[in-house]
Amino acid sequence: MTWHILGAGSLGSLWATRLARAGLPVRLILRDRQRLEAYRQAGGLTLIEAGQPMLYAIPAELPQEPAPIRRLLLACKAYDAQDAVASIAERLAPGAELLLLQNGLGSQDEVARSLPGQRCLFVSSTEGAFRPADFQVVFAGNGHNWLGDPSDPRPPTWLDELQRAGIAHQWSPDILTRLWRKLALNCAINPLTVLHDCRNGGLSQHPAEVATLCVELTELLQRCGQPAAAGNLHEDVQRVIEATAANYSSMHQDVAQGRRTEISYLLGYACAAAQRHGLHLAHLQHLQQRLLAHLAARGLPLD
Ligand code: KPL
């Protein structure tokens, strides 16, 4: 069965090239004619691993092609997910499967709600990749993907295709635990790296701020019915800060490059959840206000 991939950013390109390399049928969906033309000029997607570039001439098409879609990897930003899905919704075959590869929380439920006849799998990824140029992706070769379906614990039949493609993965019946944990890590790290304008490792200079946020995030996870995601959060945050000390967080990179952030699906989602549960988390809310003021001062979107 063909893998349709919507979104040729770093993770979408990383999946597309590895699936194509394994001989699996892949088709890219690009948003408009201009983008399709630029892709044709590039001749395909280039995967750079261990400094070695390899070009894959993966076929590409526009959203409005007539052919039905049975399996779709949605690899766009969280704030684009709903519009992206709407652009191909008419092509989805009954019972089609979608893999939602968005950061944070909130966009997956929005998409799943809009597609009651399809199966939406949620993906949590720690794979790191970046794009040195359009239609090129550099893969560090580390990280992992967890896949799961909050409304059905049975794994799909095609996980062996990911195995063949060398995509490190695991079926996770508790995918929401994974996504909440990652959300908490992102809330404890990313906004502070933006506000202190530092790499992740720079947060070791602000231990009290990190620790206070972890206390509040732990309380939030417990209140949201996610005790497993709450365990040892502070230790895990410190471990990630050390392990990724030399990196700039994804939010820091977005702000530094004048790009829209995914704040609504990260810190914004956490603060909204706290409010829904009547939880007063003073530091988390103050962090959100500081981050919003920081974005506003740079003319960046606040959602
Ligand atoms: O996921 C991350 C990000 O930068 O978005 C880490 C590395 C965990 C930092 O929060």
UniProtKB/TrEMBL annotation:
Keyword check for Nucleotide-binding: no
Gene Ontology biological-process annotations: pantothenate biosynthetic process
Transmembrane segments: none
Pfam families: ApbA, ApbA_C
Limits of the Ketopantoate reductase C-terminal domain: 174-290
Residues covered by the Ketopantoate reductase N-terminal domain: 3-150
Gene3D superfamilies, alphabetized: N-(1-d-carboxylethyl)-l-norvaline Dehydrogenase, domain 2, NAD(P)-binding Rossmann-like Domain
Pathway the protein acts in: Cofactor biosynthesis; (R)-pantothenate biosynthesis; (R)-pantoate from 3-methyl-2-oxobutanoate: step 2/2
First-tier enzyme category under EC: oxidoreductase
GO cellular component: cytoplasm
The reaction(s) this protein catalyses: (R)-pantoate + NADP(+) = 2-dehydropantoate + NADPH + H(+)
Gene Ontology molecular function terms on file: 2-dehydropantoate 2-reductase activity; NADP binding
Protein EC: 1.1.1.169
Keywords: NADP, Oxidoreductase, Pantothenate biosynthesis
Function: Catalyzes the NADPH-dependent reduction of ketopantoate into pantoic acid.
Alphabetical list of NCBIfam families matching this protein: apbA_panE, PRK05708.1
Family: Belongs to the ketopantoate reductase family.
Alphabetical list of PANTHER family matching this protein: 2-DEHYDROPANTOATE 2-REDUCTASE, 2-DEHYDROPANTOATE 2-REDUCTASE-RELATED
Protein name: 2-dehydropantoate 2-reductase
The species this protein was found in: Ectopseudomonas guguanensis
